[in-house]
Specification:
single chain; 215 residues; alpha/beta; 10 helices; 6 strands; 53% helix
């Protein structure tokens, strides 16, 4: 066992137990201590307050409020919290949103285990980290200030939009996020108004055009 992360206390937040197990093995193998695990944004906030970890590693897409809304709420309560956000989305919109909200780092889940450990080590010492595979896209997006239509969505609306655009029904999204179908329906109404779309097919098209879905 190496000790690159020796003494680092980490909270893991991901709704997939197998994913958390993989992260835990990587982290403890480098000397870190995983103090707790969360499977939702709400649980991440509660466990962060309880354990006061050095670092929170949190997935963007989780049930309940989701990772971005949890990030926003956590940093409002604890502005110095170090949070490394993870996502399966390989685009610039979500990382730009996460970094603007105050995330310390952002990594795609397609990254190698070594890159994951590098990201944790970087954020763990208080530095900023951005997935090298996304750095140019994010820099260009921030420099150009090019507004994606998706930028007008709230964090909850963005989370719901991503699920609906991927083909899930309102009821499936409601179950996934532990919300009522009527609440998801309200979010969908606002999403359609903001994006000027009429149906699910147009939602998917917007997601594809903005790199939020694989073609």
């Amino acid at each position: 066992m190496t000790t690159r992360l020796k003494g680092l206390r980490v909270l893991l937040a991901d709704d997939h137990a197998m994913v958390r197990l993989g992260f835990r093995l990587l982290l403890t193998g480098e000397g870190a201590e995983v103090v707790a695990e969360a499977d939702s944004g709400e649980a991440a906030i509660r466990l962060f307050a309880e354990w006061q970890p050095d670092l929170l590693v949190m997935d963007v897409s989780m049930p309940g409020m989701g990772g971005l809304a949890a990030l926003e709420r956590l940093l409002a309560w604890s502005p110095k919290a170090r949070v490394l956000m993870l996502s399966a989305h390989h685009d610039e919109i979500v990382p730009v949103r996460a970094l603007k909200l105050g995330a310390s780092g952002y990594l795609c889940k397609q990254a190698s285990p070594e890159e994951f450990l590098r990201a944790v080590a970087t954020v763990g010492v208080g530095a900023r980290y951005l997935d090298p595979a996304l750095a140019q896209q994010v820099a260009l997006a921030q420099l150009s200030g090019s507004a994606s239509p998706v930028d007008c969505l709230t964090e909850k609306e963005l989370a719901v939009f991503l699920k609906l655009a991927a083909g899930l029904s309102v009821n499936e999204v409601a179950a996934d996020f532990s919300l009522s179908p009527s609440t998801v329906g309200t979010h969908l109404y606002h999403i359609k108004q903001k994006l000027n779309v009429q149906n699910a097919a147009e939602l998917t098209l917007v997601a594809l055009r903005n790199g939020l879905l694989e073609a």
